[in-house]
Amino acid sequence: MDIQNFWMFALTGLLLNLTPGNDMIYVASRSTGQGIKAGIISALGIMGGCFVHIIAAVVGLSAIISRSALAFDLIKYLGAVYLIYLGIRSLLSKKRSVALNNITPLHSFTRIFWQGVITNTLNPKVALFFLAFLPQFININSNGTLWQILFLGSWFNVSGTVVNIMVALLFGKMGNWLSKAPCFIQWQERITGMVLVGLGIKVAITKSPS
Fold first, then answer.
1. DSSP letter at 206?
2. Exposure b/e, 6-34, CB count within 10 A at least 16 = b
3. How confident is the model at residue 67 (pLDDT cuts 50, 70, 90)?
4. How many domains does the chain have?
5. For residues 65 and 139, is the Cβ–Cβ distance under 8 A?
6. Assigned domain for 144 exists
């Protein structure tokens, strides 16, 4: 892989993982309602669920690449449109708070872990996002496309887990304040929106190598 493209992937993935979503809200709610340890275990559960999507992406994208480079390019362009759509939606967002469920029932850590796995596994937006995001950084003209997908997906998952663990630590200490801080929420939305739109445009105007 081109190291420049990798660092672009790593930076973009980190910014995307910093954007509040269902997984982050689940971790924040658990950490706020049941403590930091519960939040960290939730993050590890979400990490486990994300590997289900990674395996699905490895199998699906590898099959498409082996059969048709044109079909893979089509997925890339559809992914670019999807990323631009997500970016515009973030830029136009008027969200000023994160809705936390502070009345979460107390569960065992084992149950919290598996709830995290299920929360991520059954989220169709995660599967769709993997299909839109990962293809932008895969070089189908080099050997080992399967390993590229697996490596990039695992890196995205690990960086997301680190972010979620930080969320657990932060929200365990000052969850109520962070969830209602408009500057914190809007800052995340604007930066993520610009990154997504920029990435989508770059993909749309970059020609694939023959």
1. S
2. eeebeebbbbbbbbbeebbbbbbbbbbbb
3. confident
4. 1
5. no
6. yes
In terms of Cα–Cα distance, which of 194, 13, 201 is closest to 91?
A: 194
The answer to whether residue 198 is domain-embedded is yes
Tokens of 66: 């082996």
Measured CA to CA, the distance from residue 53 to residue 160 in angstroms comes to 14
The tokens for 188 are 């995340």
Structure tokens, 131: 């299909």
DSSP states of 73-96 as a string? HHHHHHHHHHHHHHHHHHHH----
Q: Please state, in angstroms and rounded to a whole number, the distance separating the CA atoms of residues 25 and 101.
A: 8
| CA gap 133, 131 in Å, rounded | 6
Answer whether residue 192 is part of any domain: yes
pTM of the model: 0.77
203 in Cβ contact with 80 (< 8 Å): yes
pLDDT at 209: 45
**Whats the size of the chain, residue-wise?**
210
